Amino acid sequence: MTMKNWSNIFVFLFLLNINLFGQDGISGYVHIEDPQRWGQTVYLSQIQLEENTNTYNTTTIASTLLTKDGFFAFDKNLFTSKDHIYKVQLNPISAEEKNKLSDKIKNFQLFILSKKDTIHFTKGERMFGEYTTNNTADLEWQKLKQFEAKYENLTDDFDPRQYLIETKGYVKDSLQILLVKLIGIKKLDDQNLLEKDAKANPEYYLSFLKELKSSELDPSTYAYLENKLNFITQEIVNHKYKVSLWVNGATSLVIILLIGFILKSRRTKKVLAPIPLSKQEKAVKNLIISGKSNKEIANELFISLSTVKTHITNIYSKLNISSRQDLLLKK
What we know:
Layout (H helix, E strand, L loop, with lengths): L2 H19 L2 E6 L8 E12 L6 E10 L5 E5 L8 E9 L2 H7 L6 E6 L5 E3 L9 E3 L2 H13 L11 H15 L3 H13 L3 H7 L1 H13 L8 H49 L7 H11 L4 H8 L3 H15 L4 H7 L1
Parallel strand pairs: 1-7
Antiparallel strand pairs: 1-4, 2-3, 2-5, 5-6, 7-8
């Protein structure tokens, strides 16, 4: 192989190395109307979603100075191979300016990116204008943002139930990427609707959490949802336990009352006044007590032997006894 060929190979490898390790993950331009009121440093932060808040936790991972024409860039090596939510932001030059400008100008942009993707901000009228990206998750997030746009300016007749139904339906049926679904669910949490719906439909959210855990997403990305669901499911378990205690207590009380009723009925039955004997039955009873036989009783009362036996059966029944001995004991 000639020296020229070796030289060409070296140049090719050198350029390839620059392409692989020097390519920007983020690049683009910032539009600043009043440069004297703004700093010249763009900050790159990683975002962690938090529960029950419209804000989020940010961790600054890099910063870069703007060029004279407003260009900035961040190297791909700042990012991981997994999708994360990031933010680029330009801060006012002072705290005083921040208070004046924070409500007037959007000085940041959120997006999803990984090490294998790129994003480029084009010049525009906004500070961080339109951008192009090849990250599929961010492209789907843009669709979610378009859906959410109709709920940006909520009025007094805002129906949270309808918002819940429509947003949950869109997240469930129209979104395919787990991270974007998680962002959509976070919107429900921002409106204080997630906890109520998770209690009513725990299976859906637990199934979604299972999907998140089996995915390649960083666990810190969905930690807030896992913590909330753990709290909610524990509340459901506690509620079921309390209901179970109440049901068991009520059942035990019913059983106790039923047993008491049965025992009371039996006692009542035992203390019921005996059915009074007829005049003839009293005569038969007295003769039995005096030791007379059935035949002697029949002769004395001028009745048949069978009639005597009938009277004795009635006496035993009315006095709740079964023999002459019992009768003698009752006299």
